[in-house]
Amino acid sequence: MKKFVKVQPDGGYGWVIVFASALSNFISLSLAPCLGLIFKDTFPPLHLSAMEASIIINTNGAFGLLIGPITGVLHKIYGCRKVALLAGLFLTAGMVLTAFAQTFGSLLTAYGIITSLGMQMTESTCRLSVNQYFQKKRSLVTGFVMTAAGFGPILLPQLLRLLLKEYATHEVVLFFGGLCAHVFVAAVLLQPVEWHMKKEFTSEEVVELTQTNQDAPPEKSVIRRALDDIAKTFDLDLLKDPVFDNILIGLALATFAETSFTLLVPFILHDFQLTTAQIATFLSTLGVADMISRFVGPYVGNYFTKPSRLMFAYALVVLIVIKFMILLTGNFYVLLLIGFALGIAKGIRKVYMWLVIPDYVSLEKLPSASGMDMLARGACILIGGTVLGAVRGATGNYRMCIILMNCVTIATIVMWTAEYFIVKYKRKNCIVRSNNIQLK
């Protein structure tokens, strides 16, 4: 019997989803570097130690990620639109509360927890909505979204620099709170993909089977049924796949290292005795290069037919080299060149980070897989960020922190390389055994 199947539109209303995702990411992905630029001058008058400052920043980077599995379940139950509206509420409220926070506890709650929920839920919702609408054009569309979002780190630091000349820091943060309210506009545009699925004819035959005279399965205990329901809700069977586990751990370690470095860039440059204007120029240079590579990177990957995971690994290798180079110079113009190269590698890493898991798991399990990814990244950022804060407090500078972050990134490269050779060896053995059986 012939039948029709519903497939992802790969276009149509998907382009509205691209616009909505780009708008949300333009705002949410720009907050961390901009707030870092503000906090470097705000924390000292509040008498916050390096450890307390590190806890606030790394909690912001980690807390929203730690509830990733819950966010994944919310996506499965309520869809992207409702979760995006909730994310916009957290993001806007968190920034407004941050504007009036004057103590470690209030900053930790407003920026570290509430704003973090909004930022991470916004990003995960955008990522999921784009992957739901696109399959064949997924890498190119992700490049478009991340390129448009890349204008944020270019334009907003310069806008921030101008605002700080005219307004107090809490007034500037309040301005960013109003900017975050535009996430609501993007949220209402996220229509369910089921409304726009295309029908395709398939020649696959459907065979109906009737089961008879089969014994009923043994009744399970209440606890076992509850555990099975939890496993099904969160798709925990994904963790039985060792390749998926390796991807999950590798992404978590690499994301911790790169996210921590991005958050600490203003503080690192401040240690190099750069002025606020010079730091803003560095961030804008990095943002321009980042935007260029986000747009060009997917085309390069498609041209050389390289998988997303390999492109991500290439970007990590380049980032390791560049971050070591930062330790060797303090000249502003040399740092600008390093910043441009850093932006190129960072943009490619960001685009393909969105694609590694969607290219490996099925669309049905993608919300849960993305939630697990968020949880693993959040745990690494929270634990590792505390370690980085302690190292900074003990050494008095960020040089040892850069070395430590590079070592973590190298661990991802080693793990994935080892997996490649193990899988290749097992496949070779399977082929040899298959050939031997045929000869017999």
Features of the shown structure:
2 strands, 440 residues, 77% helix
Report on the structure:
By secondary structure, this protein is mainly alpha-helical. It is 77% helix and 2% strand. It contains 14 helices and 2 strands; from the N terminus they run βαααααααβααααααα. It is globular. The two termini are 39 Å apart.
Question: Care to give the gist of this entry?
Answer:
With 440 residues, this protein is mainly alpha-helical. The protein has helices at 14-42, 50-66, 68-99, 104-133, 138-166, 169-180, 183-188, 222-233, 242-271, 276-303, 308-326, 332-353, 366-395, 399-439; strands spanning 3-7, 198-202.
Measure the end-to-end span: 39 Å
Instruction: Give me the Rg, rounded.
Output: 23 Å
Give the H and E element order. Answer: EHHHHHHHEHHHHHHH
Average predicted confidence as pLDDT? 83
**Structural class by helix and strand composition:** mainly alpha
Helix content: over 70%
Strand content: under 5%
Shape: globular
What does the largest sheet look like?
A: 2 strands, antiparallel
| Unreliable segments of 5+ consecutive residues | 206-213
